[in-house]
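Listing S7. Sequence submitted for prediction.
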Amino acid sequence: MPTALINGRVLSGERFLENRSVLIEGGRILEIVAEDDPRLNGLEKHDLQGQLLLPGFLDTQVNGGGGVLFNDEPSIEAVDKIGRAHRRFGTT
């Protein structure tokens, strides 16, 4: 069942959308809907309390993170640990 992110300021392109809710399921955005959309009835809701909802940042050059340097430990486990360390700060 989807979850609704409500009461946030959603960045869409070059502007912020007000009075919108974001429906997510399985870690993916399904749709951005009006706050009074009937599809929100009965869904689990997470109140963003007016905070910003932005896309994740992309880092195209990463050498390490979380105490791991990829050059020293070129493994899947190292990539996973590096990724988890960067994700905490908004890097997808």
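Caption to Listing S7: primary sequence and predicted structure tokens for the chain studied. The mean pLDDT is 91. Helices lie at 76-87.
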